Amino acid sequence: MTGAISFDFAPLIPWWAIIACASVALLLTALGLWRRARGSLLRLLVAILVLAALANPVARNEDRAELPDIAVVVVDDSPSQSIGQRRQQAEAAEAALREKLAGIGNLEVRIVHAGKPAAGSAERDEGTRLYSALSLALSDLPRHRLAGSILVTDGQVHDMPDPAALQDVAIAPVHVLLTGRPDERDRRLVVKNAPTFGMVNQDLSVTLRIDDTGAKPGETAQLHVRQQDVGDQILTVPVGRDLTIPFKLRRAGRSLLEFDVAPIEGELTPLNNRAVLSVNGVRDRLRVLLVSGEVHAGERVWRNLLKADPNVDLVHFTILRPPDKQDGTPIRELSLIAFPIRELFELKLNEFDLIIFDRYRRRGILPNAYFENIVKYVENGGALLEASGPAYATPLSLYRTPLAEIFPGAPTGQVRAEPFTPRLTATGWRHPVTAGLPQAGTPTTNPAWGRWFRAIGADAQRGQTLMQTPQGEPLLLLDRVGKGRVAQLFSDQIWLWSRGYEGGGPQAELLRRLAHWAMKEPDLEEEALRADIKGGQLQVERRSLTEHKEPVTVTAPDGSESKLSLVERGNGVASNAMPVEQAGIYRVRAGDLETVATIGAINPREFADPRATPAVLKPLTDASHGSDRWLINGLPDIRMIEKPTRVAARDAAGSGWIGLYRQHDYVVTGLHLTPLALPLAVLAAVLAGLLLMWRRESR
């Protein structure tokens, strides 16, 4: 408790009245002096005494309680603080600051931890928001009690405002205690330009740059490039120069490209040595060749399905007049288009994405050389779909051509001509082509589909059987051949579903899935592992033809591994989710399958340049006349200094010490007022003045 004396006035009448009286007195005195009247100065003296008494001067004596000054300490808990010994340095500095500041009298200490990403914030890639934390900490305290601020950080701050906006924080010194070392070295991979989508099988490129703070001129590095469904390659590339990496997308849908540069000895962190790109593949237009061996009721099912898709260019031929047909019709009366077999099956065969044979049989139109071309086309990545008719069970079957090499089903020579309802096999319940078809029933009940009336007998020699007859004979076979795919449907009765016979069935959905599986639609892969991050959750989905009980392995951006058990959801899908907080690349592995998911930016701001530096906070320390110090040189002493009237940088910091202001703020607990103009004394003085004035004027 302290006291302070000051002087004030407690006027007996309003100030405006006192001022008015003083003005009149001055005018009368001036008039008297101008006319050389006796006693004018004595009259002025008496007026001054009267006005002083009316102003009532008092002595103010205040009882004051001094308030403690406030020091704010902000500790950086951002992910970059986990590099090297930074976290240990920050913890040791915090403990030492607590001890030193606690030993300073009349000082209140507020410690704030900031920079740790909030749940779900990694997707926004906000970086380290240390300045916002400091502003928030200062917003609820009286600024005239602020002694100063101390920041314990590596200097990687990503929310610094313009220098003109620093005045609200720079009213007291801000000192920065830096973790890390000033001679740190780091190598990082920067993606400068990358496409988000591209046309399948067209040339694309990504521009990268390998930055190395300690690289020598002409130094090179090993760049590992991995493209989903393509393979790996290792390139020797220069450091510090822009690189253009060409690539092609092999399929529609999302494709992942991973880039990884080898770390160097003494590097800060390898977390920024990797980058993942997600590029969405788009097909220009799907080109489908449909060859119908004869006119039949189900021919339009295929045509209507493919023509309804605006992304499909359909080339359709129906064999109406085979070479063995001799009926004497004059050539000039024929209006048929000749089948361009050489152009389709030799010159432009590889331009098609899918070839469909619908109830086709050998008629001497296509020689074996063209069938061999089709075999090579499939082995090199093409797609073939064969919808069998009764001819498949005869010597005119396509199986009697070189296509037998790639067909998964061999004809038995029998044709079952009786009503039956197709059923899914155990594999069909899990395969994406048939899993989840409407009204498919359950594995123990019959589907609510219309019946078919013909099935072509076949033996499944390889591949997967997805549909079968009630007798267990295959109806739908799928197989992979080389880089391509082959599908066979052993019935020509699916058109009954499109006509709604006995309630019909999902013919459009089934045929659409079948065609797109043959063309390698990613969503229809039977063995697939997918990962995505939404709402702070890593969502993992595995599709397989067999049930897997072993958990998947998840590798976080910091290299830590965890296990995630998947739960069967039906239809061949097992999935689960886990919360994630770190920004970066998450790698998910299940057996031979592997995929990645990213959260936040490709190159997170937090690790874009993780070197400790005072440069980012330099405008703040300069504006507040603070300082920056490296903790590896030791923690400086802390002194309480008087707030100077003219602030200079040396006032708040010096060699081996940093200073905080003594603000001397207080609260008044008591007030005593003592009048200085005693009534009797003033009255006596006024009377004496009047007496002198009368005597002077009476002479």
Automatic annotation (TrEMBL):
Q: Which domain of life is it from?
A: Bacteria
**What keywords are annotated for this sequence in UniProt?**
Membrane, Transmembrane, Transmembrane helix
Query: Where are the membrane-spanning stretches?
Result: 12-34, 41-59, 676-694
Determine if Transmembrane helix is one of this entry's keywords.
yes
Signal sequence annotation: none
The cross-references to InterPro entries, in alphabetical order and at most eight, read: Class_I_gatase-like
**Gene3D superfamilies found in the cross-reference section:** 3.40.50.880
* Statement: the UniProt record of this protein carries the keyword Transcription regulation: no
What PANTHER family does this protein's entry cite?
BLL2462 PROTEIN
Please state what the protein is called.
Glutamine amidotransferase
Tell me the organism.
Answer: Ferrovibrio xuzhouensis
